[in-house]
Amino acid sequence: QVQLVESGGGSVQAGGSLRLSCEASETILSVDNMGWYRQAPGMQRELVAQIFNDHSTNYADSVKGRFTISGDTAKNTVYLQMNSLKPEDTAVYFCNAAAYPQFEYWGQGTLVTVSE
């Protein structure tokens, strides 16, 4: 069973930075895109950023200019550099790898807490 393993979450003060990492436990072939989603308490899971196999990227408006996604879908690795963090960025962050409609994998989630 393929697993996406995330690391890099933690607690930081507002204005600080964190870097999230995600890699697959075994090779996943034909991934179209990898990305990061987040879910705050009582809220629905939302897209944060995606990277596609042509290296194009997509960001939620709320993180544009502050977060940077990088990685390689062929190597099944994705990273999220988060700068200028705000308390409203507090959430569990999930890694995702997909090729719709064939498959979609999720990581277990890593908690990011941003304090005032």
Features:
mainly beta; 4-stranded antiparallel beta sheet
Overall description:
The protein is an all-beta fold and 116 residues long. It has no helices and eleven strands. The strands form two sheets. Strands 2, 4, 5, 6, 9, 10 and 11 form a seven-stranded mixed beta sheet that branches. Strand 5 (46-52) and strand 6 (57-59) form a beta hairpin. It is globular, with a radius of gyration of 13 Å. The mean pLDDT is 96.
- Alpha-carbon Rg, integer: 13 Å
Give the helices and strands as they follow along the chain.
EEEEEEEEEEE
Shape designation: globular
Largest sheet: number of strands, sense, barrel closure = 7 strands, mixed
Total of DSSP H or I helical runs spanning 4+ residues: 0
Distance between the termini: 40 Å
**What's the mean pLDDT score?**
96
**Beta-strand proportion:** over 45%
Helix % is: under 10%
State the low-pLDDT regions, or none.
Answer: none
Query: How many runs of DSSP E, i.e. beta strands?
Result: 11
Structural class: mainly beta
